[in-house]
Amino acid sequence: MSSSRLEIQLKTLPSTPGVYHFFDNKGTVIYVGKAKNLKNRVRSYFNKVHDYGKTNVLVKKIHDIKHIIVDTETDALLLENNLIKKYQPRYNVLLKDDKSYPWLCIKKERFPRVFQTRRVIKDGSEYFGPYTSVRTVSTLLDLIKGLFPIRTCHYDLSEEKINNKKYKVCLEYHLGNCKGACEAKETEQAYLENISAIRDILKGNFKNSLSLFKRQMQDLAENLQFEDAQVLKEKITILQNYQSKSTIVNPKISDVEVYSITSDESFAYVNFLQLSHGAIIRAHTMEIKKKLQESDVELLELAITELRQRFQLLSKEIYVPFEVKLGETIKITIPRVGDKKQLLDLSLRNAKYYRLEQLKQVKITDPDRHVKRIMAQMKSDLRLSEAPTHIECFDNSNIQGTHPVAACVVFKNGKPSKKEYRHFNIKTVEGPDDFASMTEVVYRRYKRLLDEKQDLPQLIIIDGGKGQLSAALKSLDALNLRGKIAIIGIAKRLEELFYPNDPIPLYLDKKSETLKIIQQLRNEAHRFGIEHHRNRRSKSALHSELESIPGIGEKTRVQLLKVFKSAQRVSFAKLDELEQIIGVSKAQKIYKFYHKEHES
Fold this sequence. Notes:
Elements: H1 3-11, E1 18-23, E2 29-35, H2 38-44, H3 53-61, E3 64-69, H4 73-87, E4 103-106, E5 114-117, E6 126-128, H5 134-147, H6 159-163, H7 171-174, H8 188-203, H9 207-222, H10 226-241, E7 256-263, E8 267-276, E9 279-289, H11 296-310, E10 317-319, E11 331-333, H12 338-365, H13 367-381, E12 390-397, E13 405-412, E14 415-416, E15 422-425, H14 434-451, E16 459-463, H15 466-478, E17 486-491, E18 496-499, E19 502-506, H16 513-547, H17 554-564, H18 567-572, H19 575-582, H20 584-599
Parallel strand pairs: 7-10, 10-11, 12-16, 16-17
Antiparallel strand pairs: 1-2, 1-3, 4-5, 4-6, 7-8, 8-9, 12-13, 13-14, 13-15, 17-18, 18-19
Protein backbone atom coordinates (compact mmCIF):
# COMPACT_ATOMS: atom_id res chain seq x y z
CA MET A 1 0.00 0.00 0.00
CA SER A 2 1.32 3.43 -0.88
CA SER A 3 2.09 6.07 1.75
CA SER A 4 -0.71 8.21 0.32
CA ARG A 5 -3.15 5.36 0.93
CA LEU A 6 -1.97 5.11 4.55
CA GLU A 7 -2.39 8.87 4.96
CA ILE A 8 -5.98 8.64 3.76
CA GLN A 9 -6.65 5.77 6.18
CA LEU A 10 -5.23 7.78 9.07
CA LYS A 11 -7.46 10.75 8.22
CA THR A 12 -10.63 8.66 8.21
CA LEU A 13 -10.18 6.61 11.40
CA PRO A 14 -13.06 7.02 13.91
CA SER A 15 -12.55 8.70 17.29
CA THR A 16 -14.05 5.79 19.22
CA PRO A 17 -12.75 2.96 21.41
CA GLY A 18 -11.54 -0.05 19.46
CA VAL A 19 -8.78 -2.44 18.46
CA TYR A 20 -6.42 -1.86 15.53
CA HIS A 21 -4.40 -4.31 13.41
CA PHE A 22 -1.19 -3.47 11.57
CA PHE A 23 -0.39 -5.64 8.51
CA ASP A 24 2.87 -6.01 6.62
CA ASN A 25 3.17 -6.17 2.82
CA LYS A 26 2.39 -9.90 2.88
CA GLY A 27 -0.91 -9.38 4.66
CA THR A 28 0.37 -10.77 7.97
CA VAL A 29 -0.81 -9.23 11.25
CA ILE A 30 2.33 -7.80 12.87
CA TYR A 31 0.71 -5.85 15.72
CA VAL A 32 -2.62 -5.63 17.54
CA GLY A 33 -3.38 -2.76 19.90
CA LYS A 34 -6.28 -1.22 21.80
CA ALA A 35 -7.26 2.44 21.98
CA LYS A 36 -9.65 4.72 23.80
CA ASN A 37 -9.57 6.91 20.68
CA LEU A 38 -8.57 4.97 17.54
CA LYS A 39 -7.72 8.05 15.46
CA ASN A 40 -5.43 9.64 18.04
CA ARG A 41 -3.71 6.40 19.02
CA VAL A 42 -2.98 5.08 15.54
CA ARG A 43 -1.86 8.46 14.20
CA SER A 44 0.57 8.80 17.11
CA TYR A 45 2.68 6.01 15.58
CA PHE A 46 3.32 8.12 12.47
CA ASN A 47 3.67 11.59 14.01
CA LYS A 48 7.10 11.24 15.61
CA VAL A 49 10.33 9.29 15.86
CA HIS A 50 9.95 6.90 18.78
CA ASP A 51 12.52 6.47 21.54
CA TYR A 52 12.15 2.71 21.35
CA GLY A 53 13.89 1.46 18.18
CA LYS A 54 11.63 -1.56 17.78
CA THR A 55 8.62 0.76 17.44
CA ASN A 56 10.32 2.64 14.60
CA VAL A 57 10.97 -0.66 12.83
CA LEU A 58 7.31 -1.62 13.31
CA VAL A 59 6.09 1.67 11.77
CA LYS A 60 8.31 1.17 8.71
CA LYS A 61 6.76 -2.26 8.10
CA ILE A 62 3.12 -1.13 8.35
CA HIS A 63 1.51 -1.68 4.96
CA ASP A 64 -2.19 -1.70 5.87
CA ILE A 65 -4.38 -0.82 8.85
CA LYS A 66 -7.70 -2.33 9.91
CA HIS A 67 -9.75 -1.84 13.03
CA ILE A 68 -12.77 -3.03 14.99
CA ILE A 69 -14.84 -0.50 16.95
CA VAL A 70 -16.31 -1.44 20.34
CA ASP A 71 -18.43 0.26 23.00
CA THR A 72 -15.98 0.73 25.88
CA GLU A 73 -12.30 0.67 26.78
CA THR A 74 -12.94 -2.52 28.74
CA ASP A 75 -14.31 -4.20 25.62
CA ALA A 76 -11.23 -3.05 23.68
CA LEU A 77 -8.93 -4.53 26.32
CA LEU A 78 -10.72 -7.88 26.23
CA LEU A 79 -10.83 -8.04 22.43
CA GLU A 80 -7.15 -7.12 22.18
CA ASN A 81 -6.33 -10.02 24.50
CA ASN A 82 -8.28 -12.50 22.36
CA LEU A 83 -6.78 -11.32 19.06
CA ILE A 84 -3.19 -11.36 20.34
CA LYS A 85 -3.69 -14.97 21.40
CA LYS A 86 -5.14 -15.84 18.00
CA TYR A 87 -2.62 -14.10 15.72
CA GLN A 88 0.45 -13.99 18.02
CA PRO A 89 1.78 -10.91 16.16
CA ARG A 90 5.53 -10.51 15.99
CA TYR A 91 5.60 -7.14 17.74
CA ASN A 92 3.15 -7.96 20.55
CA VAL A 93 4.01 -9.40 23.92
CA LEU A 94 2.69 -12.96 23.75
CA LEU A 95 -0.22 -13.61 26.11
CA LYS A 96 -0.14 -17.12 27.49
CA ASP A 97 -3.04 -18.95 29.06
CA ASP A 98 -1.78 -18.31 32.60
CA LYS A 99 -2.14 -14.59 31.87
CA SER A 100 -5.82 -14.88 30.93
CA TYR A 101 -8.38 -12.62 32.54
CA PRO A 102 -10.29 -13.88 35.60
CA TRP A 103 -13.86 -15.22 35.52
CA LEU A 104 -16.44 -16.04 38.17
CA CYS A 105 -17.72 -19.60 37.98
CA ILE A 106 -20.92 -21.16 39.28
CA LYS A 107 -19.89 -24.81 39.29
CA LYS A 108 -22.22 -27.43 37.83
CA GLU A 109 -22.65 -29.66 40.90
CA ARG A 110 -25.03 -30.33 43.76
CA PHE A 111 -24.92 -27.28 46.06
CA PRO A 112 -22.87 -25.27 43.52
CA ARG A 113 -19.75 -23.41 44.60
CA VAL A 114 -19.01 -19.87 43.37
CA PHE A 115 -15.34 -19.12 42.86
CA GLN A 116 -12.77 -17.22 40.81
CA THR A 117 -10.91 -18.94 37.97
CA ARG A 118 -8.77 -18.22 34.93
CA ARG A 119 -9.74 -21.41 33.12
CA VAL A 120 -13.04 -21.84 31.28
CA ILE A 121 -13.89 -25.57 31.23
CA LYS A 122 -16.83 -26.75 29.13
CA ASP A 123 -18.44 -28.99 31.75
CA GLY A 124 -21.82 -27.25 31.96
CA SER A 125 -20.72 -24.76 34.60
CA GLU A 126 -21.71 -21.10 34.27
CA TYR A 127 -18.95 -18.50 33.74
CA PHE A 128 -19.32 -14.75 34.13
CA GLY A 129 -16.79 -12.25 32.83
CA PRO A 130 -14.05 -11.97 31.90
CA TYR A 131 -13.08 -9.17 34.27
CA THR A 132 -10.18 -6.84 33.62
CA SER A 133 -9.55 -6.26 37.33
CA VAL A 134 -8.82 -8.97 39.91
CA ARG A 135 -9.83 -6.47 42.56
CA THR A 136 -13.30 -6.23 41.06
CA VAL A 137 -13.64 -10.02 41.06
CA SER A 138 -12.51 -10.20 44.69
CA THR A 139 -14.96 -7.46 45.66
CA LEU A 140 -17.82 -9.26 43.91
CA LEU A 141 -16.86 -12.56 45.52
CA ASP A 142 -16.55 -10.99 48.97
CA LEU A 143 -19.92 -9.28 48.49
CA ILE A 144 -21.57 -12.54 47.42
CA LYS A 145 -20.09 -14.47 50.34
CA GLY A 146 -21.04 -11.71 52.75
CA LEU A 147 -24.65 -11.72 51.57
CA PHE A 148 -25.25 -15.40 50.87
CA PRO A 149 -24.06 -18.31 53.02
CA ILE A 150 -22.57 -20.55 50.31
CA ARG A 151 -20.09 -23.34 50.80
CA THR A 152 -16.40 -23.08 49.97
CA CYS A 153 -15.43 -26.70 50.51
CA HIS A 154 -14.66 -29.16 47.71
CA TYR A 155 -16.77 -32.01 49.04
CA ASP A 156 -18.90 -34.13 46.74
CA LEU A 157 -22.26 -33.37 48.36
CA SER A 158 -24.20 -36.18 46.74
CA GLU A 159 -27.44 -37.20 48.42
CA GLU A 160 -26.01 -40.62 49.21
CA LYS A 161 -22.91 -39.31 50.97
CA ILE A 162 -24.88 -36.76 52.99
CA ASN A 163 -27.37 -39.43 54.08
CA ASN A 164 -24.46 -41.67 55.09
CA LYS A 165 -23.13 -38.78 57.22
CA LYS A 166 -19.74 -38.87 55.57
CA TYR A 167 -18.98 -35.20 56.34
CA LYS A 168 -18.96 -32.96 59.39
CA VAL A 169 -19.58 -29.20 59.44
CA CYS A 170 -16.42 -27.09 59.50
CA LEU A 171 -15.40 -23.74 60.96
CA GLU A 172 -17.25 -21.86 58.18
CA TYR A 173 -20.53 -23.20 59.58
CA HIS A 174 -19.69 -22.05 63.10
CA LEU A 175 -18.73 -18.61 61.78
CA GLY A 176 -22.10 -18.31 60.04
CA ASN A 177 -20.61 -18.36 56.50
CA CYS A 178 -22.23 -21.68 55.58
CA LYS A 179 -25.49 -23.34 56.66
CA GLY A 180 -24.10 -26.87 56.77
CA ALA A 181 -25.43 -28.56 53.66
CA CYS A 182 -22.89 -31.32 54.24
CA GLU A 183 -24.89 -32.44 57.30
CA ALA A 184 -28.29 -31.79 55.67
CA LYS A 185 -28.78 -28.67 57.77
CA GLU A 186 -29.84 -26.79 54.58
CA THR A 187 -32.13 -28.01 51.80
CA GLU A 188 -30.99 -28.03 48.20
CA GLN A 189 -33.97 -25.85 47.19
CA ALA A 190 -33.08 -23.11 49.68
CA TYR A 191 -29.45 -23.21 48.57
CA LEU A 192 -30.42 -22.93 44.88
CA GLU A 193 -32.56 -19.86 45.67
CA ASN A 194 -29.39 -18.14 46.87
CA ILE A 195 -27.54 -19.29 43.74
CA SER A 196 -30.34 -17.79 41.61
CA ALA A 197 -29.95 -14.44 43.39
CA ILE A 198 -26.16 -14.60 42.87
CA ARG A 199 -26.70 -15.33 39.16
CA ASP A 200 -28.92 -12.24 38.88
CA ILE A 201 -26.22 -10.07 40.44
CA LEU A 202 -23.56 -11.37 38.07
CA LYS A 203 -25.87 -10.77 35.09
CA GLY A 204 -26.49 -7.20 36.17
CA ASN A 205 -30.07 -7.75 37.36
CA PHE A 206 -29.76 -6.02 40.70
CA LYS A 207 -33.24 -4.69 41.42
CA ASN A 208 -34.60 -7.43 43.68
CA SER A 209 -31.28 -8.18 45.31
CA LEU A 210 -30.52 -4.53 45.98
CA SER A 211 -33.87 -4.12 47.72
CA LEU A 212 -32.94 -7.02 49.99
CA PHE A 213 -29.45 -5.65 50.58
CA LYS A 214 -30.75 -2.22 51.50
CA ARG A 215 -33.15 -3.72 54.01
CA GLN A 216 -30.26 -5.67 55.54
CA MET A 217 -28.18 -2.51 55.68
CA GLN A 218 -31.01 -0.68 57.43
CA ASP A 219 -31.37 -3.53 59.91
CA LEU A 220 -27.67 -3.31 60.68
CA ALA A 221 -27.93 0.43 61.16
CA GLU A 222 -30.97 0.06 63.46
CA ASN A 223 -29.01 -2.47 65.51
CA LEU A 224 -26.23 0.15 65.78
CA GLN A 225 -23.86 -1.99 63.66
CA PHE A 226 -22.77 1.04 61.71
CA GLU A 227 -19.39 -0.24 60.59
CA ASP A 228 -20.90 -3.40 59.07
CA ALA A 229 -23.64 -1.29 57.44
CA GLN A 230 -21.04 1.06 55.93
CA VAL A 231 -18.99 -1.83 54.53
CA LEU A 232 -22.13 -3.27 52.93
CA LYS A 233 -23.06 0.14 51.49
CA GLU A 234 -19.64 0.55 49.87
CA LYS A 235 -19.78 -2.88 48.27
CA ILE A 236 -23.30 -2.26 46.93
CA THR A 237 -22.09 1.01 45.37
CA ILE A 238 -19.22 -0.79 43.67
CA LEU A 239 -21.63 -3.41 42.36
CA GLN A 240 -24.08 -0.80 41.01
CA ASN A 241 -21.33 1.04 39.16
CA TYR A 242 -19.75 -1.98 37.58
CA GLN A 243 -20.60 -3.25 34.15
CA SER A 244 -20.81 -6.89 35.08
CA LYS A 245 -20.66 -8.43 31.62
CA SER A 246 -18.99 -7.66 28.34
CA THR A 247 -20.62 -7.44 24.95
CA ILE A 248 -17.37 -8.69 23.46
CA VAL A 249 -16.95 -12.01 25.21
CA ASN A 250 -19.67 -14.37 26.39
CA PRO A 251 -18.80 -18.02 26.91
CA LYS A 252 -22.36 -19.14 26.10
CA ILE A 253 -22.00 -17.85 22.54
CA SER A 254 -19.60 -20.19 20.77
CA ASP A 255 -18.84 -21.24 17.20
CA VAL A 256 -21.08 -18.53 15.75
CA GLU A 257 -20.83 -15.99 12.91
CA VAL A 258 -22.51 -12.57 13.04
CA TYR A 259 -23.43 -10.72 9.82
CA SER A 260 -24.87 -7.24 9.23
CA ILE A 261 -25.36 -4.96 6.23
CA THR A 262 -25.73 -1.27 5.47
CA SER A 263 -26.16 0.15 1.98
CA ASP A 264 -26.79 3.22 -0.17
CA GLU A 265 -27.81 3.67 -3.79
CA SER A 266 -24.57 2.34 -5.26
CA PHE A 267 -22.81 0.14 -2.72
CA ALA A 268 -23.48 -2.25 0.16
CA TYR A 269 -21.16 -2.98 3.09
CA VAL A 270 -21.33 -6.33 4.89
CA ASN A 271 -19.55 -6.88 8.20
CA PHE A 272 -18.99 -10.23 9.85
CA LEU A 273 -17.68 -11.25 13.26
CA GLN A 274 -16.50 -14.78 13.97
CA LEU A 275 -16.82 -16.09 17.53
CA SER A 276 -15.00 -19.13 18.86
CA HIS A 277 -15.02 -20.33 22.46
CA GLY A 278 -16.97 -17.25 23.45
CA ALA A 279 -14.63 -14.65 21.95
CA ILE A 280 -14.42 -12.59 18.76
CA ILE A 281 -11.47 -13.97 16.80
CA ARG A 282 -12.03 -12.39 13.38
CA ALA A 283 -13.77 -9.35 11.90
CA HIS A 284 -14.02 -8.25 8.29
CA THR A 285 -16.07 -5.81 6.21
CA MET A 286 -16.53 -6.21 2.46
CA GLU A 287 -17.80 -3.67 -0.10
CA ILE A 288 -20.23 -4.76 -2.82
CA LYS A 289 -20.99 -2.62 -5.88
CA LYS A 290 -24.64 -2.79 -6.87
CA LYS A 291 -25.52 -3.60 -10.47
CA LEU A 292 -29.31 -3.93 -10.64
CA GLN A 293 -30.63 -2.29 -7.47
CA GLU A 294 -30.37 -5.55 -5.56
CA SER A 295 -32.11 -5.74 -2.18
CA ASP A 296 -30.22 -5.99 1.13
CA VAL A 297 -31.53 -9.55 1.51
CA GLU A 298 -30.05 -10.62 -1.84
CA LEU A 299 -26.74 -8.90 -1.12
CA LEU A 300 -26.43 -10.34 2.38
CA GLU A 301 -27.08 -13.87 1.12
CA LEU A 302 -24.43 -13.38 -1.55
CA ALA A 303 -21.92 -11.92 0.91
CA ILE A 304 -22.42 -14.67 3.53
CA THR A 305 -21.81 -17.35 0.90
CA GLU A 306 -18.68 -15.57 -0.34
CA LEU A 307 -17.24 -14.89 3.14
CA ARG A 308 -17.83 -18.44 4.35
CA GLN A 309 -15.96 -19.78 1.31
CA ARG A 310 -13.16 -17.21 1.53
CA PHE A 311 -12.45 -17.76 5.22
CA GLN A 312 -13.47 -21.45 5.26
CA LEU A 313 -16.10 -20.84 7.93
CA LEU A 314 -18.01 -23.87 9.17
CA SER A 315 -20.19 -22.52 11.98
CA LYS A 316 -23.58 -24.23 12.35
CA GLU A 317 -25.31 -21.03 13.48
CA ILE A 318 -25.25 -17.44 12.25
CA TYR A 319 -26.82 -14.23 13.61
CA VAL A 320 -28.35 -11.91 11.00
CA PRO A 321 -30.67 -8.84 11.10
CA PHE A 322 -33.39 -10.45 8.95
CA GLU A 323 -34.38 -13.77 7.39
CA VAL A 324 -32.01 -15.16 4.74
CA LYS A 325 -32.00 -18.44 2.82
CA LEU A 326 -28.74 -20.36 3.08
CA GLY A 327 -29.84 -23.97 3.11
CA GLU A 328 -31.11 -26.26 5.83
CA THR A 329 -27.72 -27.09 7.38
CA ILE A 330 -27.21 -23.59 8.87
CA LYS A 331 -29.27 -22.35 11.82
CA ILE A 332 -30.44 -18.77 11.21
CA THR A 333 -30.95 -16.64 14.34
CA ILE A 334 -32.41 -13.12 14.26
CA PRO A 335 -31.58 -11.65 17.68
CA ARG A 336 -34.06 -9.27 19.30
CA VAL A 337 -32.63 -8.70 22.80
CA GLY A 338 -29.72 -9.63 25.01
CA ASP A 339 -26.09 -10.49 24.26
CA LYS A 340 -26.84 -11.80 20.76
CA LYS A 341 -28.56 -8.56 19.79
CA GLN A 342 -25.64 -6.53 21.20
CA LEU A 343 -23.24 -8.51 19.02
CA LEU A 344 -25.41 -7.87 15.96
CA ASP A 345 -25.53 -4.16 16.81
CA LEU A 346 -21.75 -4.12 17.17
CA SER A 347 -21.37 -5.71 13.74
CA LEU A 348 -23.71 -3.12 12.21
CA ARG A 349 -21.77 -0.27 13.82
CA ASN A 350 -18.58 -1.61 12.29
CA ALA A 351 -20.25 -1.82 8.86
CA LYS A 352 -21.50 1.77 9.13
CA TYR A 353 -18.12 3.09 10.25
CA TYR A 354 -16.43 1.25 7.39
CA ARG A 355 -18.88 2.83 4.93
CA LEU A 356 -18.22 6.34 6.29
CA GLU A 357 -14.47 5.82 6.07
CA GLN A 358 -14.72 4.55 2.49
CA LEU A 359 -16.84 7.56 1.51
CA LYS A 360 -14.28 9.93 3.01
CA GLN A 361 -11.47 8.17 1.18
CA VAL A 362 -13.36 8.10 -2.13
CA LYS A 363 -14.06 11.82 -1.79
CA ILE A 364 -10.28 12.36 -1.78
CA THR A 365 -9.15 9.72 -4.27
CA ASP A 366 -12.07 9.48 -6.71
CA PRO A 367 -14.13 12.71 -6.78
CA ASP A 368 -16.15 11.60 -9.84
CA ARG A 369 -17.39 8.47 -8.09
CA HIS A 370 -18.20 10.55 -5.01
CA VAL A 371 -20.29 12.98 -7.07
CA LYS A 372 -22.15 10.18 -8.87
CA ARG A 373 -23.00 8.54 -5.57
CA ILE A 374 -24.29 11.80 -4.05
CA MET A 375 -26.37 12.55 -7.13
CA ALA A 376 -27.82 9.02 -7.16
CA GLN A 377 -28.67 9.35 -3.47
CA MET A 378 -30.41 12.70 -4.02
CA LYS A 379 -32.35 11.31 -6.96
CA SER A 380 -33.63 8.47 -4.78
CA ASP A 381 -34.31 10.55 -1.64
CA LEU A 382 -36.17 13.31 -3.49
CA ARG A 383 -38.06 10.94 -5.85
CA LEU A 384 -36.67 12.61 -8.97
CA SER A 385 -36.72 11.25 -12.51
CA GLU A 386 -33.05 12.17 -13.09
CA ALA A 387 -29.98 12.99 -11.02
CA PRO A 388 -29.97 16.71 -9.98
CA THR A 389 -26.53 17.66 -11.26
CA HIS A 390 -27.76 21.25 -11.75
CA ILE A 391 -29.77 22.75 -8.86
CA GLU A 392 -30.96 26.34 -8.39
CA CYS A 393 -32.31 27.82 -5.16
CA PHE A 394 -34.27 31.07 -4.70
CA ASP A 395 -34.64 33.31 -1.64
CA ASN A 396 -36.32 36.70 -1.09
CA SER A 397 -34.93 39.50 1.11
CA ASN A 398 -36.87 42.63 2.09
CA ILE A 399 -35.78 43.60 5.59
CA GLN A 400 -38.23 46.12 7.10
CA GLY A 401 -40.03 46.16 3.75
CA THR A 402 -37.38 48.23 1.98
CA HIS A 403 -35.35 47.51 -1.12
CA PRO A 404 -36.88 44.11 -1.92
CA VAL A 405 -34.38 41.83 -3.64
CA ALA A 406 -34.04 38.13 -4.42
CA ALA A 407 -31.15 35.75 -4.90
CA CYS A 408 -30.61 32.69 -7.05
CA VAL A 409 -27.70 30.38 -6.24
CA VAL A 410 -26.54 27.54 -8.49
CA PHE A 411 -25.00 24.20 -7.50
CA LYS A 412 -23.35 21.93 -10.06
CA ASN A 413 -22.63 18.33 -9.00
CA GLY A 414 -23.39 19.19 -5.38
CA LYS A 415 -20.96 22.15 -5.25
CA PRO A 416 -21.54 25.92 -5.49
CA SER A 417 -21.03 27.44 -8.95
CA LYS A 418 -20.59 31.02 -7.77
CA LYS A 419 -20.02 32.51 -11.20
CA GLU A 420 -23.61 31.59 -12.01
CA TYR A 421 -25.17 33.18 -8.89
CA ARG A 422 -27.67 35.94 -9.76
CA HIS A 423 -29.17 38.92 -7.88
CA PHE A 424 -32.63 40.33 -8.68
CA ASN A 425 -33.98 43.76 -7.81
CA ILE A 426 -37.77 43.45 -7.60
CA LYS A 427 -39.32 45.62 -10.33
CA THR A 428 -43.04 44.88 -10.61
CA VAL A 429 -44.07 44.46 -6.96
CA GLU A 430 -45.04 47.36 -4.71
CA GLY A 431 -44.28 46.88 -1.02
CA PRO A 432 -43.18 43.73 0.84
CA ASP A 433 -44.99 40.90 -0.99
CA ASP A 434 -42.83 37.78 -0.85
CA PHE A 435 -45.18 35.64 -2.94
CA ALA A 436 -45.45 38.13 -5.79
CA SER A 437 -41.68 38.74 -5.63
CA MET A 438 -41.02 35.01 -5.94
CA THR A 439 -43.33 34.79 -8.96
CA GLU A 440 -41.45 37.66 -10.62
CA VAL A 441 -37.88 36.41 -10.10
CA VAL A 442 -38.62 32.80 -11.10
CA TYR A 443 -40.31 34.03 -14.28
CA ARG A 444 -37.42 36.40 -15.10
CA ARG A 445 -34.78 33.75 -14.44
CA TYR A 446 -36.21 31.03 -16.66
CA LYS A 447 -37.56 33.36 -19.33
CA ARG A 448 -33.99 34.52 -19.82
CA LEU A 449 -32.57 30.98 -19.84
CA LEU A 450 -35.13 29.98 -22.47
CA ASP A 451 -34.50 33.07 -24.57
CA GLU A 452 -30.73 32.51 -24.46
CA LYS A 453 -31.17 28.75 -24.98
CA GLN A 454 -29.16 27.92 -21.88
CA ASP A 455 -29.42 24.66 -19.93
CA LEU A 456 -32.25 24.41 -17.45
CA PRO A 457 -31.70 22.89 -13.97
CA GLN A 458 -32.97 19.43 -13.01
CA LEU A 459 -34.19 20.77 -9.66
CA ILE A 460 -35.46 24.11 -8.32
CA ILE A 461 -35.53 24.68 -4.56
CA ILE A 462 -37.71 27.45 -3.12
CA ASP A 463 -36.82 28.75 0.33
CA GLY A 464 -40.27 28.69 1.90
CA GLY A 465 -43.34 26.56 2.39
CA LYS A 466 -46.47 25.94 0.36
CA GLY A 467 -47.17 29.63 -0.36
CA GLN A 468 -43.76 30.36 -1.85
CA LEU A 469 -43.84 27.11 -3.81
CA SER A 470 -47.25 27.98 -5.30
CA ALA A 471 -45.98 31.43 -6.27
CA ALA A 472 -43.02 29.92 -8.12
CA LEU A 473 -45.29 27.39 -9.86
CA LYS A 474 -47.27 30.25 -11.44
CA SER A 475 -44.15 31.28 -13.33
CA LEU A 476 -43.36 27.73 -14.45
CA ASP A 477 -46.94 27.42 -15.71
CA ALA A 478 -46.64 30.71 -17.59
CA LEU A 479 -43.43 29.46 -19.25
CA ASN A 480 -44.88 25.99 -19.90
CA LEU A 481 -42.15 24.43 -17.73
CA ARG A 482 -44.27 22.64 -15.14
CA GLY A 483 -43.34 18.95 -15.14
CA LYS A 484 -40.17 19.66 -17.12
CA ILE A 485 -38.23 20.84 -14.07
CA ALA A 486 -38.62 19.30 -10.61
CA ILE A 487 -39.42 21.89 -7.95
CA ILE A 488 -39.70 21.66 -4.16
CA GLY A 489 -40.04 24.08 -1.25
CA ILE A 490 -38.23 23.79 2.07
CA ALA A 491 -39.82 25.20 5.23
CA LYS A 492 -37.22 26.32 7.77
CA ARG A 493 -38.85 25.38 11.08
CA LEU A 494 -39.01 21.60 10.69
CA GLU A 495 -37.03 21.24 7.45
CA GLU A 496 -40.17 20.05 5.67
CA LEU A 497 -39.95 19.46 1.92
CA PHE A 498 -43.09 20.34 -0.04
CA TYR A 499 -43.98 19.06 -3.51
CA PRO A 500 -46.53 20.50 -5.97
CA ASN A 501 -50.05 19.12 -5.43
CA ASP A 502 -48.97 17.08 -2.41
CA PRO A 503 -50.28 18.31 0.98
CA ILE A 504 -48.06 15.90 2.95
CA PRO A 505 -44.45 17.10 3.34
CA LEU A 506 -41.41 14.86 3.04
CA TYR A 507 -39.06 14.57 6.02
CA LEU A 508 -35.50 13.45 5.37
CA ASP A 509 -33.17 11.96 7.95
CA LYS A 510 -31.46 14.87 9.73
CA LYS A 511 -28.08 13.29 9.03
CA SER A 512 -28.71 12.50 5.36
CA GLU A 513 -26.34 13.93 2.77
CA THR A 514 -29.30 15.01 0.62
CA LEU A 515 -30.73 17.21 3.37
CA LYS A 516 -27.30 18.67 4.10
CA ILE A 517 -26.89 19.75 0.46
CA ILE A 518 -30.39 21.27 0.41
CA GLN A 519 -29.62 23.14 3.65
CA GLN A 520 -26.35 24.36 2.16
CA LEU A 521 -28.21 25.66 -0.91
CA ARG A 522 -30.82 27.38 1.25
CA ASN A 523 -28.22 28.97 3.54
CA GLU A 524 -26.10 30.10 0.60
CA ALA A 525 -29.13 31.70 -1.11
CA HIS A 526 -30.04 33.48 2.12
CA ARG A 527 -26.47 34.74 2.62
CA PHE A 528 -26.17 35.91 -0.98
CA GLY A 529 -29.55 37.68 -0.86
CA ILE A 530 -28.84 39.41 2.46
CA GLU A 531 -25.47 40.58 1.17
CA HIS A 532 -27.08 42.16 -1.89
CA HIS A 533 -29.84 43.71 0.21
CA ARG A 534 -27.27 45.21 2.58
CA ASN A 535 -25.30 46.63 -0.33
CA ARG A 536 -28.42 48.23 -1.82
CA ARG A 537 -29.36 49.85 1.46
CA SER A 538 -25.85 51.18 2.08
CA LYS A 539 -25.60 52.57 -1.47
CA SER A 540 -29.00 54.19 -1.05
CA ALA A 541 -27.91 55.83 2.19
CA LEU A 542 -24.66 56.84 0.58
CA HIS A 543 -26.32 58.67 -2.29
CA SER A 544 -29.34 60.12 -0.47
CA GLU A 545 -27.60 63.17 1.02
CA LEU A 546 -25.67 64.03 -2.12
CA GLU A 547 -28.77 63.58 -4.25
CA SER A 548 -30.64 66.11 -2.12
CA ILE A 549 -28.14 68.93 -2.82
CA PRO A 550 -29.65 71.33 -5.44
CA GLY A 551 -27.61 71.70 -8.61
CA ILE A 552 -25.51 68.54 -8.08
CA GLY A 553 -25.99 65.86 -10.68
CA GLU A 554 -25.06 62.15 -11.03
CA LYS A 555 -21.75 62.86 -12.77
CA THR A 556 -20.60 65.18 -9.96
CA ARG A 557 -21.61 62.67 -7.27
CA VAL A 558 -19.59 59.93 -9.00
CA GLN A 559 -16.54 62.23 -9.18
CA LEU A 560 -16.76 62.98 -5.46
CA LEU A 561 -17.29 59.38 -4.37
CA LYS A 562 -14.33 58.18 -6.43
CA VAL A 563 -12.08 60.50 -4.41
CA PHE A 564 -13.70 60.58 -0.96
CA LYS A 565 -15.25 57.06 -1.01
CA SER A 566 -18.28 58.10 1.11
CA ALA A 567 -20.80 60.93 1.55
CA GLN A 568 -19.59 61.36 5.13
CA ARG A 569 -16.05 62.17 3.98
CA VAL A 570 -17.48 64.64 1.43
CA SER A 571 -19.25 66.44 4.28
CA PHE A 572 -15.92 66.85 6.15
CA ALA A 573 -13.97 68.06 3.08
CA LYS A 574 -12.50 71.57 2.95
CA LEU A 575 -13.72 74.04 0.32
CA ASP A 576 -10.42 74.14 -1.55
CA GLU A 577 -10.36 70.32 -1.74
CA LEU A 578 -13.81 70.31 -3.33
CA GLU A 579 -12.89 73.11 -5.76
CA GLN A 580 -9.93 71.12 -7.09
CA ILE A 581 -12.23 68.22 -8.02
CA ILE A 582 -15.52 69.76 -9.22
CA GLY A 583 -14.84 73.49 -9.65
CA VAL A 584 -15.65 76.61 -7.60
CA SER A 585 -19.40 76.90 -8.25
CA LYS A 586 -20.38 73.32 -7.38
CA ALA A 587 -17.89 73.16 -4.53
CA GLN A 588 -19.53 76.16 -2.84
CA LYS A 589 -23.01 74.59 -3.15
CA ILE A 590 -21.84 71.38 -1.46
CA TYR A 591 -19.80 73.18 1.20
CA LYS A 592 -22.73 75.48 2.09
CA PHE A 593 -25.10 72.49 2.23
CA TYR A 594 -23.02 70.76 4.88
CA HIS A 595 -22.02 73.89 6.81
CA LYS A 596 -25.21 75.97 6.75
CA GLU A 597 -25.98 75.16 10.38
CA HIS A 598 -22.62 76.55 11.51
CA GLU A 599 -23.07 79.66 9.35
CA SER A 600 -26.42 80.43 10.89
